[in-house]
Amino acid sequence: MNSSLLMLWGLWDDVYQRCTRLRYIEKGANIFRVVLLRYRGETLVTTDHQVINRGDWIVKIHIHNYYFATLCRGVKDDLRLALLLRRHIMLSLPKLASYLESMDEKEKIKGIVGTTMLHKGVQPLGFSISDVPMNGYFRYKRWYLRLLLRFIHPDGKKRVQSWKQDMPLKRVYMSKESLLERYGSQNPSPLGDLH
After folding, report:
1. Around Cβ 122, how many Cβ atoms within 10 Å?
2. What is the CB neighbour count within 10 angstroms for residue 75?
3. Is residue 91 a contact partner of residue 195, using CB atoms and an 8 Å limit?
4. CA dist., res. 146 & res. 186, Å (int)
5. CA distance 21 to 34
6. Terminus of the chain with fewer CB atoms < 10 Å: N or C?
């Protein structure tokens, strides 16, 4: 992505942030932005057998795409992009756990939930994965995320076209208990060999 386009995206991202309820975990140092809301999808069962039902309170997680785009400048291949994203997710999860622990609503929150096409490799991090219904909302979201990938990825249009079949939109989720057990303050080294 060229510098002018990245600058325009940054301006738009600032407006978008002001117009939504998304909150930064740690601006400029964490890949997640979040919002507290009631879950509206199908029943989810996490890997530790917790159940998230329609109407339960969740922390909805969003990858901060503009921030990730700034991190990707100069990266030229798929493997390095994937490793960069995975590393920043791993580095961001402990701060997300701390953020959830500090929330006044902590006791009523059932878990964290997000939707993404970048779901490969997240299960070892504690996430479960499920399909999303391809209704109008998720069709729009898939189109929007593919547009962002086209801007972020160095091969742009060609790469997004090749991802049509093997990059479906998925729901990723984790129970509050699993997040805090894996990445909370009681776990002294959740990142293992990243240190």
Report:
1. 19
2. 15
3. no
4. 38
5. 8
6. C
Residue 176 in tokens: 């509050």
Burial class (CB within 10 angstroms; exposed 0-12, middle 13-18, buried 19+) of 50: middle
- DSSP states of 126-179: T-EEEE---SHHHHHHHHHHHHHHHHHSTTHHHHHHHTTTT---EEEEEEHHHH
Q: What is the pTM of this model?
A: 0.80
User: Rg (Cα) of the chain, in Å, rounded?
Assistant: 17
Q: Which two tokens stand for residue 152?
A: 């972020």
Residue 18's Cα: distance from chain center in Å? 19
Encoded tokens for 88: 């920043």
DSSP 3-state assignment of 186? coil
- pLDDT tens digit string along 32-79? 999 999 999 999 999 999 999 999 999 999 988 888 888 877 777 777
DSSP 55-113: T-EEEEEEE-HHHHHHHTTT--SHHHHHHHHHHHHHHHHHHHHHHHHH-TTGGGEEEEE
- Give the amino acid at 182: R
